[in-house]
Structure formats: C-alpha cells, structure tokens
Amino acid sequence: MERKYGAQSMVAPLRRVLVRRPDESFSAADPDEWHYTSRPVLAEAQREHDALADILRKAGVEVIYHNAGLPGLADAMYVFDPVLVTDVGTVVLRMGKSMRRGEEAAMGNALKELGLPVLYSLHGDAVAEGGDLLWIDHDTLAVGLGFRTNLEGFRQLSEALSPLGVTLVPVELPYHKGPRCCLHLLSLVSIVDHDLALIYPPLLSATFWQYLEGRGFRFVHVPDEEFPTMGPNVLALAPGKCVMLEGNPGTLERLEAAGCEVTTYEGNEISLKAEGGPTCLTRPILREYE
C-alpha cells in the first residue's frame, strides 16, 4: 500500500507538506512581546507565503493548509515546530516558547484528520521544538539542547522513538543572545544532501561537527554576514535540491559550487521579521524513501 506519511529524513524527495498561511494573529503581533524586528504587514506576508507555496507545488509537492483557528498565536505559521512526523505517526511536541503553547494539539488534530495517528505526546516538564530536531538519516535524530528543548524533552523523545529503532544524538546549543532569541539547531545546520551539510561553524558544537565529519559529511560554510539573515536555514526538496531565503548570495554561491540546485524565495515579512526560515514554514508529511 502506498505510504501517505513518513518524514524521517531531511533530504529525501518531498511529496506532501503542511503549511499555514499568515493571518491576523501574525500581523497583530506586538514586536517587543514576540521578539519580531517590526510589525508584519499582512498583505505582503500572504503574498510572500503564496509565492513560497507555488515554489513547492512547481517542485511536485502537494501543499496542504493548516487552517484551524488559533487566535493570538502569532508564530503558528511556523508549522515545523509543534510536531515530529515519523513513519508510524506524529510525536506531538511541547513548545519551549511558552507563548506558543496551544499550537501542538491543534497541529496534532490537523494531522490526525489527514490520517496520521498520534504516536506520543510530550508532557510534564518536557519541552522540545521541531527546529531542534534534525534527521541525520532515517534512524538517527540529532536533538539540540538549549532554551527550546530540554533534557526531559530528550528523554521523552527517546522513549517515543526508541521502539522505532531511532537513535537520538544530543547536541548542546550555545547561549548566543539568550532565551528570548530563537536559536534552534536548524538555525545552525541544514542537511541538503545525503552527505552534505550547510553549517555556521562559529556557533556549532565542536563535538557535533566531529560527529558529522565522522559520518562522512562534507560541509558548506555560511559567511558570517549571512548568519543573521538565516543563511543556514535551508529546506531540501530532494537530495541536492533546496529552497533558501533570498539575500544570501554568498551561501547561494557556495551551495551551487557544491553541486546544489537552489531556488530562493522572498521573505521580508514571513522570515526576516520573525526569525523563521523555509524549514520553519513547512511541516513535511511525506518524503519518498525506501
């Protein structure tokens, strides 16, 4: 029977994805409260988001919209964070950014309506966000430990995923700009091919760099000046084929030199103002792998 879900990879060909179009909760967000650079302009944000969705469709991806009402949850457009999709169902996470609580159950319900059962729900003191979860391969998940994902979250993820044969690799994240800043593991590294990782070395754990090197990864380095504009945050549509935020020419040139086919999108409203790149804006439901 043809699989309808399963996304235990960062690079296998993307076939189905969930997105959420920006709404009034996003445009009404108080920039100081939500740690945005300025108040978003809704019409422009929707235009940018629609254009990104068109890029996905042109790549052969089925784009599904998460339309549940989530008043006051300004970050709900960043659908990568509330859940993890496995081959047997979803792990409903628990947001480290407390202002985002409520997104998780809504996302779990939306995916349940699409036929994805809930495998596990984080609870108690556990927190973990999707932006800290990076599939190294089908059976290995790197977990960033910082302000958004804690040790109890790691323990519960291990409890959920160990029966599936998944090994978890802990990755310490730096303090950087502190708890208000959104620094996920995926803020520092994106896997763009089976053996190619885009990284920002100055903030990446030395032991994690050594781990990736030991796994045979090659590296593309993001220039210092392009880290603030989310140069490291890249969505792979297939091995060596990816989408990134425009305005990072050094990163783009280096990816292409490494053999990647790169498409850029405009994200002044949906990305630069609110710290969310292309991976954050998409929740893969189905990637095509054997």
Characterize the structure shown.
- Helix content is 24%, strand content 24%.
- The chain has a three-stranded mixed β-sheet, covered by helices on one side. The protein has a three-stranded mixed β-sheet with strand order 3-4-5, covered by helices on one side. A three-stranded mixed β-sheet has the order 6-7-8, with helices on one face.
- It has 290 residues and is α/β, with parallel strands linked by helices.
- β4 (90-92), α4 and β5 form a beta-alpha-beta unit.
- The protein has a domain at 14-183 and 266-287: L-arginine/glycine Amidinotransferase, Chain A, CATH 3.75.10.10.
- The protein contains eight helices and 15 strands.
Give a brief rundown of this model.
The chain has 290 residues and is an alpha/beta fold.
Keywords:
3-stranded mixed sheet, single chain, 8 helices, L-arginine/glycine Amidinotransferase, Chain A, 290 residues, 15 strands, alpha/beta
Q: First CA to last CA: what distance? A: 13 Å
β-strand percent reads: 15-25%
Tally of DSSP β-strands = 15
Report the oligomer: single chain
**CATH architecture descriptor text of one domain:** 5-stranded Propeller
